[in-house]
């Protein structure tokens, strides 16, 4: 799978599937500095993943500060030929000052055994 540089950062296409509904976006950042995978709240709502009273709420910290997210388990997260079923994601506002639908964090990258080749800008 090819990486695309956007804003000087590596982006990929990801497909999220939940309860028979699939959504694909080209605006997922590959971030080895992020412990978890997060998607934008707007995308989550399109998949029927709105907040519910019993959802786990977490406060996450990053370069841009802190934000609150809630956690959900989706049926599948796929990048190219690599997919993980029953995968826990975090959902938040993701208001970072540029267009982004999600962050593929180290949790997914390790579990899917992704190799990032920066010379060829590909994920293997």
UniProtKB/TrEMBL annotation:
<dbReference type="InterPro" id="IPR034122">
    <property type="entry name" value="Retropepsin-like_bacterial"/>
</dbReference>
<dbReference type="GO" id="GO:0008233">
    <property type="term" value="F:peptidase activity"/>
</dbReference>
<keyword id="KW-0645">Protease</keyword>
<dbReference type="InterPro" id="IPR021109">
    <property type="entry name" value="Peptidase_aspartic_dom_sf"/>
</dbReference>
<dbReference type="Pfam" id="PF13650">
    <property type="entry name" value="Asp_protease_2"/>
</dbReference>
<protein>
    <submittedName>
        <fullName>Retropepsin-like aspartic protease</fullName>
    </submittedName>
</protein>
<dbReference type="GO" id="GO:0006508">
    <property type="term" value="P:proteolysis"/>
</dbReference>
<keyword id="KW-0378">Hydrolase</keyword>
């Amino acid at each position: 799978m090819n990486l695309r540089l956007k804003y000087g950062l590596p982006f990929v296409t990801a497909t999220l599937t939940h309860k028979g509904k699939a959504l694909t976006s080209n605006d997922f950042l590959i971030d080895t500095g992020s412990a978890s995978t997060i998607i934008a709240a707007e995308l989550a709502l399109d998949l029927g993943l709105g907040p519910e009273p019993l959802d786990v709420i977490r406060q996450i910290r990053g370069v841009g500060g802190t934000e609150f997210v809630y956690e959900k388990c989706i049926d599948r997260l796929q990048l190219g030929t690599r997919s993980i079923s029953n995968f826990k994601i975090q959902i938040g506002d993701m208001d970072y000052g540029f267009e982004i639908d999600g962050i593929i964090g180290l949790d997914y990258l390790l579990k899917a055994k992704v190799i990032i080749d920066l010379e060829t800008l590909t994920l293997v």
